[in-house]
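WARN  no MSA supplied for this record, continuing single-sequence
INFO  ligand: 4'-deoxy-4'-aminopyridoxal-5'-phosphate
INFO  echoing inputs
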Amino acid sequence: EPKQIINFGAGPSKLPQSVLLQAQKELLDYGGIGFSVLEMSHRSADFGKILNKAESLMRELLSIPDNYKVMFLQGGGSGQFSAIPLNLIGLKEDNCADYLVTGTWSERAAKEAEKYGKVNIVHPKLDRYTKIPDPSSWTLNPSASYVYYCYNETVHGVEYDFTPETNGVLLVSDMSSNLLSRPVDVSKFGLIFAGAQKNVGCAGVTVVIVREDLLGHAQKECPITMDYKVQAANNSLYNTPPCYSIYIVGLVLEWIKNNGGSAAMETLNKQKSSMIYDIINASNGFYECPVDVSCRSRMNIPFRVGKKGGDEALEKEFLAAASKRGMLSLKGHRSVGGIRASLYNAVTVEETEALATFMKEFLKEHQ
Ligand code: PMP
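INFO  complex generated
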C-alpha cells in the first residue's frame, strides 16, 4: 500500500483532493465540450462562465461590497509590489506611501515602491522579524497615499491579529498567504491582493480586489497590463489571463463554500495551529518558535529544534524522520533555517494531528 503523503509546503502548497479529482475528471473534456480548459479561448462563452464563477464566489465568500472590482491578474504577488505604487502612490500630491515592514514580503514591497515614490517605514526598523511593532510607536503620515502591510508574513510566520488603524488613509494589504483562512471586512481596505498559490488556488494568478474610486490614477509609465483601470474595464480580459489558474481558483472557492466559508476555515485553522503551538510551548525549549505570541501565524509556523537558535544536525534528523513518515516540505525558508510547517486551508486536522504526534515522539526520543 502506498504510504500517505502529507504536504506541509509554504506555497505552492496542498490543494484539496476533491479539487484535484475534479480537475482530473475535466482535464480532457470540460463539461462535454470535447476539449480542455487549457485549450479554450479566453473570449469564449465557456471561459466567461468560469471567470464569472470565480468572481462571484470570491464576492460571496468575502462579502465584497459592490463598489469593489475583483481582478485576476498575472505577475504574481511580486507583480503587485510594483503595480500598487504604479497605480496608487500618486493618489495624493506628495507621491508618498507608508509601509509597515514586518518580514521578507513587506520588505520587498517597500523596496520596490521606492522606485515610484517616497516610502516611509512607519516604525523603527526591526532587526529580527519576530513581532509587530506596537501601533503606539508608528508615525503615520496623514498625507500618504496609502498605508501598506502584509497581513501574514509567510517566511517569518508573523500574522497581524488586528487591522491597522490609519486615521482615514487608504489601507492596502498583501493577503497572499491568509486570504480566506479567516473572515475579513473588505470595506476597511482600499486594495487587497493575494497570489493564489496558497489558500485559493495554484500559481499563475493573483487576485486583486480594489475600490472603484481608486482606478484611473496610474502613473503614465505604468505597464498597461498592470493598469487597474484598464484591467477592471476589461473584466481581467485586456489580454489573455491565466485561464487554467482561474479555473482552479473557482474549484477551490467552491470547496471553501461547501466547507462552510471563511468562518469555518478560521475555526479549523485556529484548532490546527494551536495543536502545533501547544507542543512547542510545552516542549521546555526543545522546540522554539521565535515569533512573539501576540502575532504567531495560523498559516506558517516556523520553529527550531534541539536548542535555542536550532541544532542543525538534529533539524536534519527531524526532517529525515518526518519524510520517512510521508510528511514533506517542512524545511524552513533558507533565510530563516529550521523547520516551517504551513497549515493552509487544505491541510486537514488529521494531517496536522499526524505532525503533532510525530513532534511529540521526536521530542521524547531526543530530549
Ligand atoms: N506576498 C506573500 C505574503 C508571499 O508569501 C509571497 C510568495 N510566497 C509573495 C508575496 C510573492 O508572491 P509571488 O511569488 O507570486 O511573486
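The CA atoms of residues 23 and 222 lie 35 Å apart.
INFO  checksum written, moving to next record
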